[in-house]
Amino acid sequence: MNRAQPILCPTCKREIEWNEQYPWRPFCSERCKLVDFGAWMSEARAILARHDQALRRMSEFTSEGGGVLRLGVPMELPADLLERTLATFAANGPGTRVMPRHLSTAAQLSALRAGELDLGLANSSVYLDMVGHTVIAWIWLRQAMVAVKKVGKAQDADRDFYQGKLQACAWFFRWELPKTGHWHELLNNLDRTCLEMQDSWF
Length: 202
Hints:
By secondary structure, the protein is mainly alpha-helical.
């Protein structure tokens, strides 16, 4: 029988084999697993603190009435990066209220704190899709704000260029960004569909 391919423990770098002899694999021991989890939780708490700062900063630029723009805020985004963008947006759209959406959930964090790592990370690819779409939405919003300022004074090809930016932004916000709502529900509800799939069912 072929010997299992050796791997390195992510915490202590000790070489182990991927077999039943190491029930905590890819860690060599429960201690190494807990050390890694503790480091992850420390970073998670720091990220949540930055997220709260970002939400407070966004609230400074909201107004009652008018339209509503729902924007997700990645927890990893430093709060000070929002100020200039939101100030510009508030000046260009004084009647629009910004409504932030959380891009991670208390349910996920609770599962991880309870040691349910498989459940807390089961839908991590959905989280990456959601954050990716949200980051692209912010990029399109920034481009659209520039285009709004320039399109009125531009001529011919330049005007078409700025109009194309505005149309592409509208498409992304209407066709792509709404997908993040469904992804957020899957994460918030700790959906187990993928996690509960068994190898023998294939």
